[in-house]
Design goal:
It contains five helices and seven strands, in the order βαααββββαββα. By secondary structure, the protein is α+β, with helices and mostly antiparallel strands.
Protein backbone atom coordinates (compact mmCIF):
# COMPACT_ATOMS: atom_id res chain seq x y z
CA UNK A 1 0.00 0.00 0.00
CA UNK A 2 1.21 3.48 -0.80
CA UNK A 3 0.44 6.63 1.15
CA UNK A 4 0.75 10.11 -0.37
CA UNK A 5 1.14 13.32 1.63
CA UNK A 6 1.15 16.80 0.13
CA UNK A 7 2.62 20.03 1.44
CA UNK A 8 1.43 22.98 -0.61
CA UNK A 9 2.42 26.65 -0.82
CA UNK A 10 5.63 26.23 1.18
CA UNK A 11 7.49 29.56 1.22
CA UNK A 12 10.85 28.24 0.04
CA UNK A 13 12.19 27.77 -3.44
CA UNK A 14 11.88 24.27 -4.92
CA UNK A 15 15.60 24.21 -5.69
CA UNK A 16 16.51 24.44 -2.00
CA UNK A 17 14.01 21.76 -0.96
CA UNK A 18 15.14 19.35 -3.71
CA UNK A 19 18.66 19.27 -2.24
CA UNK A 20 17.35 17.79 1.00
CA UNK A 21 14.64 15.67 -0.68
CA UNK A 22 17.24 13.74 -2.70
CA UNK A 23 19.01 12.89 0.55
CA UNK A 24 16.12 10.90 2.01
CA UNK A 25 14.64 9.31 -1.12
CA UNK A 26 14.69 5.51 -0.86
CA UNK A 27 15.48 5.38 2.87
CA UNK A 28 13.32 3.82 5.56
CA UNK A 29 11.25 6.25 7.57
CA UNK A 30 13.49 6.00 10.64
CA UNK A 31 16.67 6.59 8.65
CA UNK A 32 15.05 9.53 6.84
CA UNK A 33 13.99 11.10 10.16
CA UNK A 34 17.57 10.83 11.47
CA UNK A 35 18.97 12.40 8.26
CA UNK A 36 16.52 15.31 8.50
CA UNK A 37 17.17 15.81 12.21
CA UNK A 38 20.90 16.35 11.74
CA UNK A 39 20.79 18.30 8.47
CA UNK A 40 21.78 21.99 8.62
CA UNK A 41 19.44 23.05 5.80
CA UNK A 42 16.21 24.92 6.59
CA UNK A 43 14.33 22.71 4.15
CA UNK A 44 15.01 19.75 6.46
CA UNK A 45 12.59 21.18 9.03
CA UNK A 46 9.84 21.41 6.41
CA UNK A 47 10.39 17.85 5.16
CA UNK A 48 10.67 16.57 8.74
CA UNK A 49 7.25 18.03 9.54
CA UNK A 50 5.78 16.46 6.39
CA UNK A 51 7.35 13.09 7.20
CA UNK A 52 5.95 13.10 10.75
CA UNK A 53 2.51 13.88 9.35
CA UNK A 54 2.76 11.01 6.87
CA UNK A 55 3.86 8.56 9.57
CA UNK A 56 1.03 9.50 11.91
CA UNK A 57 -1.51 9.21 9.07
CA UNK A 58 -0.22 5.75 8.20
CA UNK A 59 -0.41 4.56 11.80
CA UNK A 60 -3.82 6.04 12.60
CA UNK A 61 -5.77 5.67 9.37
CA UNK A 62 -4.23 2.62 7.73
CA UNK A 63 -2.82 0.77 10.78
CA UNK A 64 0.64 0.41 9.24
CA UNK A 65 3.61 0.13 11.59
CA UNK A 66 6.35 2.75 11.43
CA UNK A 67 9.02 0.05 11.00
CA UNK A 68 7.38 -1.14 7.78
CA UNK A 69 7.47 2.21 5.92
CA UNK A 70 9.83 3.43 3.22
CA UNK A 71 10.17 6.84 1.55
CA UNK A 72 9.40 5.77 -2.01
CA UNK A 73 9.40 9.12 -3.80
CA UNK A 74 9.48 12.86 -3.18
CA UNK A 75 8.42 15.31 -5.86
CA UNK A 76 9.13 19.00 -5.35
CA UNK A 77 7.28 21.23 -7.81
CA UNK A 78 7.13 24.98 -8.06
CA UNK A 79 4.11 26.79 -6.73
CA UNK A 80 2.94 30.31 -7.47
CA UNK A 81 5.62 33.01 -7.37
CA UNK A 82 5.01 36.20 -5.43
CA UNK A 83 6.28 39.21 -7.39
CA UNK A 84 7.68 42.06 -5.30
CA UNK A 85 9.69 45.16 -6.25
CA UNK A 86 12.81 46.66 -4.71
CA UNK A 87 13.46 50.39 -5.22
CA UNK A 88 16.87 51.10 -6.72
CA UNK A 89 18.94 54.10 -7.75
CA UNK A 90 17.72 56.70 -10.25
CA UNK A 91 14.05 55.83 -9.72
CA UNK A 92 14.37 52.27 -10.98
CA UNK A 93 12.73 49.21 -9.52
CA UNK A 94 14.08 45.66 -9.72
CA UNK A 95 11.88 42.60 -9.36
CA UNK A 96 12.13 40.19 -6.45
CA UNK A 97 10.63 36.77 -7.01
CA UNK A 98 9.51 35.02 -3.83
CA UNK A 99 9.05 31.41 -4.83
CA UNK A 100 6.80 28.79 -3.28
CA UNK A 101 6.84 25.00 -3.53
CA UNK A 102 4.49 22.03 -3.58
CA UNK A 103 5.98 18.86 -2.06
CA UNK A 104 4.44 15.42 -2.66
CA UNK A 105 5.89 12.63 -0.52
CA UNK A 106 4.98 8.98 -1.17
CA UNK A 107 5.51 6.33 1.49
CA UNK A 108 5.29 2.62 0.70
CA UNK A 109 5.25 -0.55 2.74
CA UNK A 110 8.44 -2.60 2.78
CA UNK A 111 6.54 -5.85 3.33
CA UNK A 112 3.03 -5.69 1.87
CA UNK A 113 0.25 -6.55 4.29
CA UNK A 114 -2.33 -9.01 2.97
CA UNK A 115 -5.04 -7.98 5.42
CA UNK A 116 -7.90 -6.71 3.28
CA UNK A 117 -10.40 -6.63 6.18
CA UNK A 118 -9.28 -3.11 7.17
CA UNK A 119 -11.02 -1.53 4.23
CA UNK A 120 -14.77 -1.18 4.32
CA UNK A 121 -16.64 -2.93 1.55
CA UNK A 122 -19.70 -1.36 0.00
CA UNK A 123 -22.73 -3.60 0.30
CA UNK A 124 -25.44 -3.29 -2.37
CA UNK A 125 -28.87 -2.49 -1.00
CA UNK A 126 -32.01 -4.03 -2.41
CA UNK A 127 -33.20 -0.57 -3.54
CA UNK A 128 -30.10 -0.18 -5.76
CA UNK A 129 -30.70 -3.42 -7.65
CA UNK A 130 -32.44 -2.87 -10.99
CA UNK A 131 -35.05 -5.39 -12.01
CA UNK A 132 -34.92 -7.01 -15.44
CA UNK A 133 -38.49 -5.96 -16.21
CA UNK A 134 -37.45 -2.29 -16.18
CA UNK A 135 -35.65 -2.70 -19.50
CA UNK A 136 -38.66 -3.93 -21.54
CA UNK A 137 -39.25 -0.47 -22.97
CA UNK A 138 -35.66 -0.26 -24.16
CA UNK A 139 -35.88 -3.64 -25.87
CA UNK A 140 -38.99 -2.56 -27.79
CA UNK A 141 -37.35 0.67 -28.93
CA UNK A 142 -34.22 -1.03 -30.24
CA UNK A 143 -36.08 -3.83 -32.04
CA UNK A 144 -38.35 -1.38 -33.91
CA UNK A 145 -35.44 -0.19 -36.07
CA UNK A 146 -35.41 -2.05 -39.33
CA UNK A 147 -32.28 -2.68 -41.32
CA UNK A 148 -32.50 -2.96 -45.08
CA UNK A 149 -29.87 -4.00 -47.56
CA UNK A 150 -29.19 -1.84 -50.61
CA UNK A 151 -28.18 -3.09 -54.05
CA UNK A 152 -24.49 -2.60 -53.12
CA UNK A 153 -24.84 -5.09 -50.27
CA UNK A 154 -24.40 -2.39 -47.59
CA UNK A 155 -26.76 -2.48 -44.63
CA UNK A 156 -28.54 0.78 -43.92
CA UNK A 157 -31.15 1.80 -41.36
CA UNK A 158 -34.67 2.55 -42.47
CA UNK A 159 -35.06 6.24 -43.10
CA UNK A 160 -31.42 6.93 -43.97
CA UNK A 161 -30.86 9.02 -47.09
CA UNK A 162 -28.50 6.72 -48.97
CA UNK A 163 -25.33 4.72 -49.00
CA UNK A 164 -22.95 7.68 -49.12
CA UNK A 165 -22.95 8.28 -45.38
CA UNK A 166 -19.99 10.62 -45.13
CA UNK A 167 -21.17 13.13 -47.69
CA UNK A 168 -24.71 13.12 -46.28
CA UNK A 169 -23.37 13.78 -42.79
CA UNK A 170 -21.17 16.56 -44.11
CA UNK A 171 -23.98 18.34 -45.95
CA UNK A 172 -26.43 17.80 -43.08
CA UNK A 173 -24.09 19.52 -40.66
CA UNK A 174 -23.80 22.62 -42.78
CA UNK A 175 -27.50 22.95 -43.44
CA UNK A 176 -28.50 22.17 -39.85
CA UNK A 177 -30.78 19.28 -40.90
CA UNK A 178 -30.54 15.69 -39.81
Amino acid sequence: MELTVKGKFIRMSPRKIRLVAEMIKGLTVEQAAIQLQFSKKDAALILQKLLKSAISNAEENHEIKKDNLLVKAIMVNGGPTLDRWMPRAHGRATPIRKRTSHVIMTLAEIIASDDKSKTKKKVAKTDDIVKIGDFDELKDATSSREVKETEDGVKAKKGSKGTKGFSNKLFNRRSGQK
